[in-house]
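Hi W., the pyridoxal-5'-phosphate complex you wanted:
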Amino acid sequence: MIPTVLPTYNRAPLSFVRGEGSWLIAADGSRYLDLGAGIAVNALGHADPRLVAALGEQAAKLWHVSNLYEIPEQQRLADLLTAHTFADTVFVTNSGTEAAELAIKMARKHWHDKGEPRAEILTFEGAFHGRSTGAIAASGAEKMVKGFGPLMPGFRVLPWGDIKALEAAIGPQTCAVMLEPIQGEGGIRPLPDADLRRIRQLCDESGALLILDEVQCGMGRTGRLFAHEWAGISPDIMMVAKGIGGGFPLGAVLATERAASGMVAGTHGSTYGGNPLACAVGARVVEIIADPAFLAEVGRKAALLRQKLEALAASHPGLIDSVRGQGLILGLKLKAAPADLVRAGYDQHLLTVPAADNTLRLLPPLTITDAEIAEAVARLDRAATALEGAR
Ligand SMILES: *Cc1c(COP(=O)(O)O)cnc(C)c1O
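Structure:
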């Protein structure tokens, strides 16, 4: 018989009843150190008192009003995001997938309204932009698209980071180039800053819009508010989600006035997107993370974690190939699939996340403490040792 919950997930036999900062607590009281943070969602850890207050205060006032009316909390979130980024305008969604859908629509509409429609969006192998029919077509990955055809046309998938292939593919027919500055699901694969600058240049030359998916790598995770800032460039359209809600479902599309010019009244909408509860929490998250002192702390802690992980890799050369990523979006590139090490981590009460390309993902809360970093790497070391002993 089919389970009452549609069985689309490979779930670990773990469940939690409470969270405190970097810790998740099971019904029997046992505590797990959380280096997954809901896959980069719980950016401020679990039950951050500032977010609990923001949600509670809003919940006592007003949960939902339609976008038929003005929503001051949504306005405040948009004002904060535009104040801290390249963007002139923001559409608020409930998820990263919805942000991807709008990013695609916005780019197509831009060219349509210019009177020179351009259909082709260039994307990269290993990309993850969500699970909608559009987002799986953008990724092109066999495991996501198989059986779900016909796929939405208009995407061409290039080898990851292959600038030569992009130079050959981009042209006056290119609507947009869409990519994650650091691939998350694809295995924590950062694009070098120089390559991101070159992609920006190629977009400028061909007119193509640059869409960056910062759903996973954005919101302070690299030590800047958004990862592309390290390269000194900015996109035309950017997708944000995951960390921006701190655990409350929230996403956004940020865009320049030029890129968004086609999105006039009636061209897009959402029932829940921009809801007062989500926006009250999101605005508090942005205020906290955009603080330069907070971002500097992320950078400092990231260096500490990185250094400990490099030492860990050196002491388990049969298991760990290398450390990659930036800031607190880090991966251990393993010599085999990460599932066994993830499971060995559970035995040490440590939560990590598998990714493609034999990579174990580490996405701790940005608020993780130095002591928790040391504890996490000690547990990872024990997990690795146990796994090596079992082989
Ligand atoms: C998770 C993710 C998405 C999809 O976000 P959802 O909120 O799950 O719809 C899109 N892009 C990237 C890079 C992601 O990591």
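The first strand starts at residue 18 and ends at 20.

W.
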